[in-house]
Amino acid sequence: MKKYENQLPTTMTMGLKTMISMLRDSLTRTANRRPKAVIDAETFLPAKTISISDAPRVTWFGHSAFFLEIEGKRLLFDPMFGPRPSPVSWAGTKRYKSNLSMLLEDFPTLDAIIISHDHYDHLDYHSIRKFKDKASRFMVPLGVRQRLIQWGVPSEKVTEHAWWEELEFKGLTLACTPARHFSGRGLFDRDSTMWCSWVIAGRETKVYFSGDSGYGPHFKEIGEKYGPFDLTMLECGQYDERWSSIHMMPEETVQAHLDLGGQLLIPVHWGAFTLAFHAWTDPVERVTEEALKQQVSISTPKIGESVVITSKDFPTSLWWR
């Protein structure tokens, strides 16, 4: 079985001391690990038609799922809309409750679905099954194509890509770029597929999505090759010092944005699931504080709220408080 590797050594081995500390933390009730009330989400209303001249906008659905409308194209990233990021329906953390009235059946036709890696909180079987006839193209990192074909996605719809590979798609340039993470959906397939980030470049607008990633020199490399970016969608959540090599701390999220030459930052990978020991609001509190220190423009939209990427009037409400 082929095994993929990160650009620099990234250890994920946990010793006995670390395992004991994690067991202790799992038995300790950390305050505010889940919302106490239903999250007040916006009602998502996709436009019936979009054109090249329409202002580019992005809509975040919690965790890393977001919808990008750019130069007349509709792209959906890491569409995990299931109730649990788990291989079974009866175990694993539950999605936070929200009033997001966005039914998969009512979602518009998509130009493409783009996947960063195969972990359950990013690649969801039931969501892919729902969307397989709505999207004309699926773009995935190496090794993930076969999973989608097994789930019923027609093979001619799915293309897989290596790091630094570029493709032209309906007037857009996309690049599959490095991330610092790992892959796998079972006990014996770790690193058998590739993980990645994505660059989306139109004629007027550039967007970067980190996927899951620890901090590393790849952000500066990507920024130098493809930046500056009008928008960065960067992971910020489910972190811990014990696994900081594969998930950035919030302060590193801001530094990655600066490395990329980003204009506007939207933090993702939070707001839907509890996959770490921190409070559910800790990611957004820390990243907004660091962004203020570094004079970085940061938007904190509600789940389901659309953000016009090129507008100076972007959402900054503290809706989680």
Describe this structure in words.
With 321 residues, the protein is an alpha/beta fold. The protein has one domain (48-87, 98-308): Metallo-beta-lactamase, Chain A (4-Layer Sandwich). Helix content is 18%, strand content 20%. The chain has 6 helices and 14 strands. It has helices at 16-27, 125-131, 145-150, 218-226, 250-260, 282-293, and strands at residues 57-60, 66-70, 73-77, 112-114, 138-141, 158-161, 165-169, 172-177, 197-201, 206-209, 229-235, 262-268, 297-298, 306-308. Strands 6-5-4-3-2-1-14 form a 7-stranded mixed beta sheet. The chain has a 7-stranded mixed beta sheet with strand order 7-8-9-10-11-12-13, with helices on one face. Helix 4 links the parallel strand 10 and strand 11 (229-235). It is globular. The mean pLDDT is 93.
What is the CATH top level name?
A: Alpha Beta
Give the uncertain stretches in residue-range form: none
Major beta-sheet overview: 7 strands, mixed
Q: Quick one: CATH superfamily?
A: Ribonuclease Z/Hydroxyacylglutathione hydrolase-like
Strand order of the largest sheet: 6-5-4-3-2-1-14
Structural class, by secondary structure, is alpha/beta
**What's the gyration radius in Å?**
18 Å
Chain-averaged pLDDT: 93
CATH topology: Metallo-beta-lactamase, Chain A
Secondary structure layout plus pairing:
Elements: H1 16-27, E1 57-60, E2 66-70, E3 73-77, E4 112-114, H2 125-131, E5 138-141, H3 145-150, E6 158-161, E7 165-169, E8 172-177, E9 197-201, E10 206-209, H4 218-226, E11 229-235, H5 250-260, E12 262-268, H6 282-293, E13 297-298, E14 306-308
Parallel strand pairs: 3-4, 4-5, 5-6, 10-11, 11-12, 12-13
Antiparallel strand pairs: 1-2, 1-14, 2-3, 7-8, 8-9, 9-10
Helix pairs in contact: 4-5, 5-6
